[in-house]
């Protein structure tokens, strides 16, 4: 189906060349100041035609709020968001009436529905992601105001050009890469048209994308995303582990091929003695309260499916776009052999435009988990305070945890006081 999320639920609609695309988003808390400008920022970062290394389809993707707000404030009711498709050229796709594009979704859509949208990628088009980006921009605003959460994604590789993930063999991930993960801002990311915030690497990426484009070819790449200031305790212990839901969200973005949390596949080559994240005494960066921190963060901020308060970071791999103007031998729908040189305006590499899609999908996931955890904490807060707990349930030491253990306190609790009145 076309919905995602439980407590913050997004339903997207629209195809590549229909009248409009958009979403209905349910679960936005009432009382959030919200205007179209708040949402437009991320849509404009996603829009096509931003530079000569993205598709030439020119859309401004102006968003129109349809419902759910009054006088610039959310009502708590479903929010409808609409973006008109303006620069449609369905005739560009005449060849795909004869050929299913190799590695695109033409054949599988036909297999599933028995018919296909007459032009473009239908629902498989990246135009579908407009609804997600709009819904995620609202979540980002709430998360920033309520928790100071910030989400930043950046391009980590294009084809064979990559950031230095590690300088030394024995490093799980290198200092330069982790420094970007820890400190990079959206302003730094947007300074480069590739959205790789490392000038030298970005220049090489630009060159390689332009060279692929000149050969009517395309390139894949990867995007790293970091979520800062998320409270501990988000995520569910079994099927909705936070990394599982993040992977679901990210792998639902068109063109994605892989998802790695924290140290990812590289981390699997190290022993536990190097890969473990030892605990240290520290302060919660949001609340300033004493808490346990970790001296490294190869877990990517999630252990047992639940946030530990450290930065959450992950990397997503995107394949080269399927539609290329270069001649490709392939079969027509009728089985006869032919050669397809696909016309139309297409991205030579999707990763620069994927950055805001990744950020906003991450925001949707965190928003959903925040609402879920807050419902649990609120429910627990209505119970009479717990007394006479066995000593094994009482944590020693002075660290604080965001836990649901004290009937009165729904926030961080002083652990040694649990069970005392
Ligand atoms: C931002 C973005 C832009 C995209 N642009 C194109 C494109 O111009 N041409 C194309 O063939 N695929 C493009 N795609 C990928 C297709 O939407 C996707 O490959 C296709 O639906 C097949 O699905 P799959 O690759 O996820 O299996 C784009 C994806 C994203 C995220």
TrEMBL record:
Catalytic reactions of this protein: 5-O-(1-carboxyvinyl)-3-phosphoshikimate = chorismate + phosphate
Gene Ontology, cellular component aspect: cytosol
Example GO molecular function: FMN binding
PROSITE patterns referenced in this protein's UniProt entry, alphabetically: CHORISMATE_SYNTHASE_1, CHORISMATE_SYNTHASE_2, CHORISMATE_SYNTHASE_3
Obligatory cofactor(s): FMNH2
Record EC number: 4.2.3.5
Free-text remark on how the cofactor is bound: Reduced FMN (FMNH(2)).
UniProt keyword terms in alphabetical order: Amino-acid biosynthesis, Aromatic amino acid biosynthesis, Lyase
Metabolic or biological pathway, per its Swiss-Prot or TrEMBL entry: Metabolic intermediate biosynthesis; chorismate biosynthesis; chorismate from D-erythrose 4-phosphate and phosphoenolpyruvate: step 7/7
Mitochondrion is among the record's keywords: no
Keyword match Amino-acid biosynthesis: yes
A biological-process GO annotation: chorismate biosynthetic process
Family affiliation: Belongs to the chorismate synthase family.
Subunit structure: Homotetramer.
Protein name: Chorismate synthase
Organism this protein belongs to: Kwoniella dendrophila CBS 6074
